[in-house]
Design goal:
The chain is of the alpha/beta class. The protein folds into two domains: 14-36 and 259-346, Aspartate Aminotransferase, domain 1 (Alpha-Beta Complex), CATH 3.90.1150.10; 39-256, Aspartate Aminotransferase, domain 2 (3-Layer(aba) Sandwich), CATH 3.40.640.10. It contains eleven helices and 13 strands. The chain is globular, with a radius of gyration of 20 Å.
């Protein structure tokens, strides 16, 4: 018997990167941080009062919100926390875009956007990236909303703060969502300061990448209190306790250790730039990444993908128009990237 609703039957779910079983894999396919989280995270979790697990967690993650606000120079009332940035984004789609038309977003971007668009009846008006995969900001105006991943995934390119501000000015009647999962690896600064002058801006961030906490699933949004209240309305119509106690403790410890963040991101960026230079020397085109991954063009990307897979190196490939000859490669450790480059040379 078939119990699925028509909407679910027609959904094309997001396909996450493979999580391999077994050992000796070099995993460069899901943009995880190759280095451990701050030692203060381990300390916080070891000192956690496990007896409190019998209680529901703080639904508003108030201590974590205060810690984030302190780091970003905003008020705790500007912060909303959720179970990963994916959940926060999904709640934002429901709160601000559901049932609306003329929501602008790039044709090549995060693969979850069209899934949520279908699930929540969002009328996308897809804008093609330029030939070099950059965003043409002139395309983003007079809309009911804009969704931009900055830096973009999978292309790794980013918009500057003045460009984000221009998009905000061009769309005064639409919410502009800046998905900043990779912003700590970018040469441009975050759009968070713009929330003080633009009430139509919502910035979404994650602890999964630069803070090395993908396993805890913590994300957050930054915006004016009215937007935060909108997110809470949707959350409390779905799950009032999305972020567990241990995740709140770990994320709070992580964001308070700015020295660890700076050390880790600096190391990833250095490895990224070395890898780009090495691949350029081998004749591969690599976009000028501002994330913790590379987007590299290969004459026969599917064959290179299979070659790497056969040598237990996982990367991402999409058989889609415009990008079917590209691979997305997460930045691993220096040793992992050396093994990747040596394997590419053998193909």
């Amino acid at each position: 018997m078939d119990f699925l609703s028509e909407k679910v039957k027609n959904l094309t779910p997001y396909v996450a990167g493979t999580q391999p079983l077994g050992e000796n894999w070099i995993k460069l396919n899901t943009n995880e941080n190759p280095y451990p989280p701050s030692p203060k995270v381990m300390e916080a979790l070891q000192n956690a009062d496990i007896a409190k697990l019998r209680l529901y967690p703080d639904s508003d993650s108030r201590e974590l919100c205060r810690a984030i606000a302190n780091q970003l120079n905003v008020s705790p009332e500007n912060i909303f926390c959720g179970n990963s940035s994916d959940e926060v984004l999904a709640l934002a789609f429901q709160a601000f875009y559901s049932g609306k038309t003329n929501i602008l977003t790039p044709d090549i971007s995060y693969g979850f956007y069209p899934v949520w668009g279908e699930m929540y009846s969002v009328g996308f008006n897809v804008q093609p990236l330029r030939e070099d995969f950059s965003v043409n900001i002139a395309d983003y105006k007079n809309s009911k909303g804009v969704i931009i991943a900055n830096p973009n995934a999978p292309t790794s390119l980013a918009l500057s703060l003045p460009e984000i501000e221009q998009i905000l000015r061009q769309n005064p009647d639409g919410l502009v969502l800046a998905d900043e999962a990779y912003i700590d690896f970018a040469r441009f600064e975050s759009a968070v300061p713009l929330i003080k002058t633009h009430e139509n801006l919502l910035v979404v961030r994650t602890f999964s990448k630069s803070y090395s906490l993908a396993g805890l699933r913590v994300g957050f949004a930054v915006g004016n209190p009215a937007l935060i209240e909108g997110l809470k309305r949707v959350r409390d119509s779905f799950n009032s306790y999305p972020l567990d106690m241990l995740a709140q403790l770990g994320a709070t410890a992580a964001i308070q250790d700015s020295k660890s963040l700076a050390k880790t991101t600096k190391r990833v960026i250095a490895t990224r730039e070395t890898a780009i230079a090495r691949l350029n020397e081998l004749g591969y085109r690599v976009l000028p990444s501002q994330a913790n991954f590379l987007f590299m063009e290969a004459e026969n990307a599917p064959a290179l993908y299979q070659h790497l897979l056969g040598n237990k190196i996982l990367v991402r490939h999409w058989n889609k128009p415009r990008i079917n000859n590209f691979l997305r490669v997460s930045v691993g450790t220096e040793q992992e990237m050396e093994a990747f480059i040596q394997c590419v040379k053998q193909q």
